[in-house]
Amino acid sequence: MKKEGSLGEFDLIRRFFQPREAEGAGAAGVILGIGDDAALLDLPAGTELVAAVDTIVAGRHFPHGTDARSIGHRALAVNLSDLAAMGATPAWATLALTMPGVDAAWLERFSTGLLHLARANGVVLVGGDTTRGPLTVSVQLMGHVPRGAALRRSGADAGDLLAVTGTLGDGGAGLAFSTAPPEARPRDRDRDGTGTGTGNLDRAAVLDLIHRFEYPTPRVEFGVAARGLATAAMDLSDGLVGDLPKLAQASGLGAHVAVERLPLSAALTRVATPEQARDWALAAGDDYELLLAVPARRFAALEAAAARLNLRLTAIGELVSGSAVTWSLNGAKFVPAVRGFDHFMD
Amino acid sequence: MKKEGSLGEFDLIRRFFQPREAEGAGAAGVILGIGDDAALLDLPAGTELVAAVDTIVAGRHFPHGTDARSIGHRALAVNLSDLAAMGATPAWATLALTMPGVDAAWLERFSTGLLHLARANGVVLVGGDTTRGPLTVSVQLMGHVPRGAALRRSGADAGDLLAVTGTLGDGGAGLAFSTAPPEARPRDRDRDGTGTGTGNLDRAAVLDLIHRFEYPTPRVEFGVAARGLATAAMDLSDGLVGDLPKLAQASGLGAHVAVERLPLSAALTRVATPEQARDWALAAGDDYELLLAVPARRFAALEAAAARLNLRLTAIGELVSGSAVTWSLNGAKFVPAVRGFDHFMD
């Protein structure tokens, strides 16, 4: 029986996730959105359909107690990053939301986070399913790419440069700071004079890093711009050490990375030791940056495309023949002590 | 760190869900399947993309301890039923699987159940995401329908007949029998001479009903056949009492159902009282039958299409002007005492 004041599944979806009229009406390619057994969508002529799915679970991909607005943002961001890595234009998402009960304030913040990022990337939510159970959020994202133009992991050639967007390690550091007890935070250590920043500067840097973790920016526009320039791409949601071997293997190649070239943010270098920063940049997930292979002669063009989006692009190494993935630090052989994040590994 | 003998996420997906070469190679419309950041799919010319998502949770949509093969089957069946209700041809699925740990025997049975039903319906699994957490299974299914030909909930006209496929109530009864203590099962009561069947007959009927719950057959071929004949359709996964008002409302109409016409299986009538059978047929979910609106002049053609698939089609009432959904039993006004299954309601 329906409980007084509770919301049925149908009402829930309508109330929080159905786009308001101004956004939903005539949204690109949406013939029929939420409210029927399935959505009807119009794929642009001359394109291939691109589809990805990712799940985030409380206590696993985000700390218990994380702001629901960040959870909504990240649930979509992880999929946007996957489509960015294909050079695809995102278009339509479906949501499978399992949660312990109906909490209107939580849902309001969650849907705000998800729908805000969706709008910013031209994505319309076209289907949803809400179920009672432990908090689990699955988003599937669909989009499109001109026929034959998708960036795959397998297209790299020996000699291609390896490049990454943005800076690495910020998401991992942000996660660590957001869950660490206050006495373990670098900014507190710095107050004792053992660090390089002042208390005020470090506090701002830590907040920057936590924001990077909570509200990552998937590189969707850059992924589209990289089509025809990069030969292969993947997203770094699981960390460079774990992910690079996948791109190399898919391309039938080995790779070499000069670890001192990994791009680090000012915020990260301000609050972490060089060793900590390097570990986060090598192995932490949650950065949502892209790893690309690009022929040396096209690197400048790819860099210019990034610059037009106010995005940094850094060459960190190259693809090599063979199958070994090797690392060096200032010319010396280097063995990463850490491995990529695996959702069944910790 | 990687634990000895455990499987990484990547290995898991490959081992259990990547179609074997003979099935995956050249599967219809799959340009790039599992193994990259996203799948690349080729939508047939002249079609619209159809997408649905559904989640099933242990203890909510199936009893704890349910055979993993049934869980895999039902996770896909619920989505196949949604696409059947649109008259769509299913093509590609993605899976978001959250589970407490890696249990190879469980995964083997789960993937067998899911992939067997997928093959039977021409569906290829093109993406997956596995995460540790409480058992939750989300499947998104994509397919296609000729441009403009989809069956919606909103297309019915006043005077159209209401028809249902198959028989109703079997899934609900099967669920009840599979979870009831032995002494509460009708076949045991019947042994005391208060029922109509013999112990042996009833045992077979109960097993039939449990099988209907565990391995429902979504009406995919019939959904395709109903295009151009039915004016509206939806699937009955949540029960007639809960679902019919949605179709009526979407079409801007009311509806009337003659409850004595609800099609009941021989198995159900053998093990349940008429009142129990009626309640299950009216309100239980899990039947995965279709509810359709069809002009009276086209009912015979729709019935013939069903017969070609060895499927029963039964007229149970009609759409009427206004907005009231009413029920009668042998000519007398009838008020269902039960309401449709709602995943936030019990």
List keywords for this structure.
homodimer, 346 residues, alpha+beta, 60s Ribosomal Protein L30, Chain: A, Phosphoribosyl-aminoimidazole Synthetase, Chain A, domain 2, 7-stranded mixed sheet, 4-stranded mixed sheet, 13 strands, globular, disordered N terminus, disordered C terminus
Could you explain how this protein is built, in words?
- The structure is a homodimer of 346-residue chains.
- With 346 residues, chain A is α+β, with helices and mostly antiparallel strands.
- The first copy, chain A, is built from twelve helices and 13 strands.
- In chain A, strand 12 (325-329) and strand 13 (332-334) form a beta hairpin.
- In chain A, helix 3 packs parallel to helix 8.
- The two termini of chain A are 42 Å apart.
- At the A-B interface, helix 1, strand 2, strand 3, helix 3 and strand 4 of A face helix 1, strand 2, strand 3, helix 3 and strand 4 of B.
